[in-house]
Amino acid sequence: METRRILMRSLAVAVVIASVIWTTTAEDQKVRKPCCTKVSTTEVTDPIISFRLQRQSLPCVKAVIFKTKQGEFCCDPGQQWVKEKVKHFFKNTTPTPTSSISN
């Protein structure tokens, strides 16, 4: 009877240790940077500070992520307005070429 109780306690301790190790290991595998799991088709009207493209890699979906003062917005890259915003952003942020050649 005593042996059985010792065995049950040992088993309980082993289960607790295994669950702590499993939880700690699972924390290391979490995505460090949140990703878009769905996209919006609603147009972003705030001024865009920057943007980045996100590839599809489940659970993340393909998206254009616009950054504004209000935060980040996950947008459908297939929407015409998204393509225009990206094009407009590049047009307004591309530096004007200058010449270093003097006359």
Structural class: alpha+beta
- Helix count, per DSSP? 2
Helix content: 25-40%
Find the count of extended strands (DSSP E, 2+ residues). Answer: 3
| H/E series | HEEEH
Average predicted confidence as pLDDT:
79
Strand order of the largest sheet: 1-2-3
Uncertain segments are 24-31
GO cellular component, one term: extracellular space
Keywords: Cytokine, Signal
GO molecular function, one term: chemokine activity
Protein name: Chemokine (C-C motif) ligand 34b, duplicate 1
Describe this entry's structure for a reader.
With about 100 residues, this protein is of the alpha+beta class. It has two helices and three strands. Strands 1-2-3 form a three-stranded antiparallel sheet, covered by helices on one side. Strand 2 and strand 3 form a beta hairpin. The chain is rod-shaped.
Can you lay out the helices and strands and say which pair or pack?
Layout: H1 2-28, E1 50-54, E2 63-68, E3 71-75, H2 80-93
Antiparallel strand pairs: 1-2, 2-3
InterPro entries: Chemokine_IL8-like_dom, Interleukin_8-like_sf
GO biological process, one term: immune response
Keywords: Cytokine, Signal
